[in-house]
Amino acid sequence: RKGNVIITGASSGLGLATAKALAETGKWNVIMACRNFLKAERAAKSVGISKENYSIMHLDLSSLESVRQFADAFKRSGRPLDALVCNAAIYLPTAKEPTFTAEGFELSVGTNHLGHFLLSRLLLDDMKNSDYPYKRFIIVGSITGNTNTLAGNVPPKANLGDLRGLAGGLNALNNSAMIDGGEFDGAKAYKDSKVCNMLTMQEFHKRFHEETGITFASLYPGCIATTGLFREHIPLFRLLFPPFQKYITKGYVSEEEAGKRLAQVVSDPSLSKSGVYWSWNTNSASFENQLSQEASDAEKARKLWEISEKLVGLA
Ligand code: NDP
Questions:
Q1: Average pLDDT of span 274-281
Q2: Residue 75 contacts by C-beta under 8 Å, 6 or more apart in sequence?
Q3: Which of 157, 162, 129 is nearest to 145 (CA)?
Q4: Which atom of ligand 1 is nearest to the CA of 141?
Q5: Which residue lies with its CA nearest to atom 31 of ligand 1?
Q6: What are the recorded GO MF terms, alphabetically (predicted)?
Q7: Partners of 23 in the beta sheet?
Q8: CB 193: neighbour CB atoms within 10 A?
Q9: Contact indicator for 59, 36 with CB cutoff of 8 Å
Q10: Rounded CA separation 39/101 (Å)
């Protein structure tokens, strides 16, 4: 049978390119989990994904209620789940004030981390029960959350501190909209959320890999400087960022190439190791990359897991 893969945020950028790459193999039913149905439908058509290889299901990660409804709807569909790709993200680098999810969490961490955390917890059993020859759960990471890299050292740097802001509910009323309890900074909130994604992947691996046989992985697909992720940035940045990445840092990859990379992590037999953060060198060969100290801190991963469980209502 064909494999079933859910990709969040498949209506643009990396998610769409990955949906296309997997759909084209003819071996996958791609479930595009998107907040905007019409946009997703148009996107799928625009890149030529054929009807029999995809479906669209509504998911708004900035509402835990929507995440629950999505998981219920998927379970009711009776389809097994063979791969889950947590890809959607928002980046609000110029925001002066925090904005919030339906449940009142700062929007970047609330969407990118907490929404995906609940989604993956709710769908874990479905993947565990699948009879597919291999099962994979992937959370898209980023170099920007990794302070052991040049890009990760551009201020403001990611730093979760002692997680006091998160423990306090991640809203400005009680405490702080930032995980570390500091002043709101939209660019840092995004980077923090990516550190959470990478820590979450490792904690999943630790808790569930042996028991379930699921491969847990994260990746940095390269700098896809042309995606919608930068839509909130100032116009000059949007103009200069792609050529800067292409010619100066040489970290630039096209959406198509990045989609192929993520599709490899979903289905390539040679990328089956669990607990790995994948990257690609300039010849597009994959390798197991090192995470920064914070993004591989086992104690922090455990604490993040426990606080997140409370915030999303699982504990
Ligand atoms: P895009 O902005 O093009 O895509 C983000 C996707 O997330 C869109 O489909 C968007 O939906 C969706 N999304 C945003 N908020 C929500 C929500 N509340 N509920 C459901 N879906 C939502 O960015 P990219 O393709 O660049 O980003 C994809 C991933 O790649 C992210 O995890 C990002 O961190 C990561 N990444 C990107 C890099 C880059 O250079 N671009 C580098 C490293 C990692 P909609 O279409 O409705 O807006």
A1: 94
A2: 126
A3: 157
A4: 44
A5: 89
A6: protochlorophyllide reductase activity
A7: none
A8: 27
A9: no
A10: 21
The confidence band for 174, taking pLDDT boundaries of 50, 70 and 90, is: low
Out of 35, 114, 193, 230, mutate this one to test ligand 1's pocket (max ligand atoms within 8 Å of CB): namely 35
Closest CA to 196 of 63, 33, 62, 307: 307
Q: Is 51 exposed, middle or buried (0-12, 13-18, 19+ CB in 10 A)?
A: exposed
Q: From the alpha carbon of 224, which atom of ligand 1 is closest?
A: 40
The predicted structure's pLDDT at residue 103: 96
Cβ atoms 148, 292 nearer than 8 A: yes
Kindly calculate the radius of gyration of the chain based on its CA atoms and give it in whole angstroms.
18
> Residue whose CA is closest, atom 34 of ligand 1?
89
CA end-to-end span of the chain, whole Å?
A: 36
Lowest-confidence segment of 23-32, 49-58, 183-192, 222-231 by average pLDDT? 222-231
Stronger pLDDT, 123 or 157, i.e. the higher one: 123
Residue 69 burial class via C-beta count within 10 angstroms: exposed 0-12, middle 13-18, buried 19 and up: middle
Q: What is the position in ligand 1's atom list of the atom closest to the CA of 86?
A: 32
Q: What is the pLDDT of residue 287?
A: 94
C-alpha span between 139 and 116 (Å, rounded)? 9
Given a contact cutoff of 8 angstroms between Cβ atoms, the answer to whether 109 and 189 are in contact is yes
Model-level pTM? Answer: 0.96
**Alpha carbon of 184 to ligand 1 centroid (Å):** 21
* Six token digits for residue 257: 């190439």
- Exposed/middle/buried for 119, CB within 10 Å: 0-12, 13-18, 19+? buried
Interface predicted TM-score (ipTM): 0.98
CA neighbor of 98 nearest in space, from 187, 228, 195, 9 = 187
Length of the chain in terms of residues written: 315
Distance CA 249, CA 165 (A): 34
The beta strands (E) that lie in the chain are given as: 3-8, 28-34, 54-58, 83-86, 136-140, 215-219, 276-280, 286-288
